[in-house]
């Protein structure tokens, strides 16, 4: 069983993921900003860790990550000001990568989005521009660094119940991706070394998640 740290532990995807992982016997620490979020984390079977990733240095984050096998980044500014978007989705994300590497954590899984990259094509005057730029920079830092990474890129997120079925490549035609399906993909990826070095873009679909993950080569 693995020791897993989830950054952004109070998000809907992260809460679902923590429950999945603890049910499989993994030891999960979920990083959250607010003490009032601790009960929700504990309810998943995970251990809450109060940590403001915007305020903590890479050295301080490294102390939190020491002894873990995997770091999952599922945090996000959730819109708002471009400044905070860059602070969380780019700068804090990059610090967690550097911290993981310094702590000796080899495996890192990033929650990005389908279509992420510097060629995203989002106009500068679009409200989504800062997020697109931030994720592109964070993903690139991860790809060029020393960590054994997997980047997960779901389509537009929905609150539908998990179907356990997704589509990739030409089969990624659905407009939406269930957050619970994203959590299931993350749970599979963590135990699948064949996904190291890959970016997996997907939407809800018709292929069982374990089959999709097992076929990645």
Molecular structure report:
The chain has 217 residues and is of the alpha/beta class. Helices cover 38% and strands 23% of the residues. The protein has 7 helices and 11 strands. The strands form 2 sheets. Strands 3-2-1-4-5-6-10-8-11 form a 9-stranded mixed beta sheet, with helices on both faces. Strands 7-9 form a two-stranded parallel sheet. Helix 1 (12-23) crosses helix 6, helix 3 packs across helix 4 (82-103) and helix 4 (82-103) runs parallel beside helix 5. 45% of the residues are buried.
Summary keywords:
single chain; 217 residues; alpha/beta; Rossmann fold; nine-stranded mixed sheet; two-stranded parallel ribbon; 7 helices
Q: Layout of SSEs?
A:
Blueprint (H helix, E strand, L loop, with lengths): L2 E5 L4 H12 L3 E6 L5 H6 L3 E4 L7 H8 L4 E4 L8 H22 L3 E5 L17 H16 L3 E7 L1 E3 L6 E4 L7 E3 H12 L7 E7 L2 E2 H6 L3
Parallel strand pairs: 1-2, 1-4, 2-3, 4-5, 5-6, 6-10, 7-9
Antiparallel strand pairs: 8-10, 8-11
CATH class: Alpha Beta
Distance between the termini: 24 Å
State the major sheet. Answer: 9 strands, mixed
Order of helices and strands: EHEHEHEHEHEEEEHEEH
Mean pLDDT: 97
- Widest sheet: strand ordering: 3-2-1-4-5-6-10-8-11
Say which CATH homologous superfamily is assigned. NAD(P)-binding Rossmann-like Domain
Helix content: 25-40%
- For the secondary structure, the number of strands is 11
Tell me what the CATH architecture is.
3-Layer(aba) Sandwich
Kindly provide the radius of gyration, computed on alpha-carbon positions and rounded to a whole number of angstroms. 16 Å
Stated plainly, the CATH topology is called: Rossmann fold
Oligomeric state of the chains present here:
single chain
Give the low-confidence spans: none
Tertiary shape: globular
> What structural category arises from helix and sheet content?
alpha/beta
Q: Provide a count of the helices.
A: 7
Domain count? 1
Portion in beta strands: 15-25%
